[in-house]
Amino acid sequence: MDPGKEALYQALILDHDRSPRHFHVLNPCSHAAEAYNPLCGDRYIIYLNVESGIIRQISFDGHGCAISKASASMMTSMLSGVSIDSALALSKSFKAVLLSNKQTDDELPGDLAALTDVVSAPTRITCALLAWEATCDAIAGF
Ligand code: ZN
Q1: DSSP structural state of residue 27
Q2: Class of the 3-140 domain?
Q3: At what angle do helices 3-18 and 66-79 cross, to 10 degrees?
Q4: 30 Cβ partners below 8 Å, 6+ apart?
Q5: What is the tens place of the pLDDT at every residue in 19-60?
Q6: How many angstroms does the Cα of residue 53 sit away from the middle of ligand 1?
Q7: Domain map of the chain by residue range?
Q8: 106 CA to middle of ligand 1, Å?
Q9: What are phi and psi of 89, to 5 degrees?
Q10: d(CA 127, ligand 1 centre) in Å
């Protein structure tokens, strides 16, 4: 990766870490999911309001490392207003790109490319996937 792009991606992750989007409790909510990663100590609650198969609202709170928090922040920005099916599909492609460990700027929307390019160690992948997996568990089969 060229150094300019890497710096940009690092800055983007730091920005989400310092100013996370949708970072609040949602009350009332139709779904809440706990996301806990004992390897790193990341712990979040994801809140959702799902209605007619659409994620009307999504937010999170908690604490953890920069990667897990940036990933949760990006996730809530991307999944707000989308259908359950689209959310599950996006989560699946994000996971596939992370696990394949290749650089793929063009395959993922929004800021996710920053995460997939920066995150390569397996322990960091767990951090990056944490919020996504909790959300998928909460909405799968709904
Ligand atoms: Zn972490």
Answers
A1: S
A2: alpha beta
A3: 80
A4: 48, 49, 50, 51
A5: 999 999 999 999 999 999 999 999 999 999 999 999 999 999
A6: 30
A7: 3-140
A8: 25
A9: -65, -40
A10: 4
Q: Residue 69 Cα, ligand 1 centroid: separation in angstroms?
A: 8
Give residue 100's pLDDT band: very low, low, confident or very high (50, 70, 90).
confident
| Gap from CA of 16 to ligand 1 centroid (Å) | 14
pLDDT tens digits for range 65-81: 999 999 999 999 999 99
Please give the distance of CA 64 from its chain centroid, rounded to a whole number: 13
Tell me what pLDDT residue 105 has. Answer: 53
pLDDT at res. 106: 57
Question: What is the DSSP track for 77-134?
Answer: HHHTT-BHHHHHHHHHHHHHHHHHT---TTTS-TTHHHHHHH--SHHHHHHHHHHHHH
Question: How many Å apart are CA 86 and CA 125, to the nearest integer?
Answer: 22
132 CA to middle of ligand 1, Å?
13
Residues facing 57 on adjacent strands = 49
Q: What is the pTM for the complete model shown?
A: 0.91
Two structure tokens written together for 73 = 């922040």
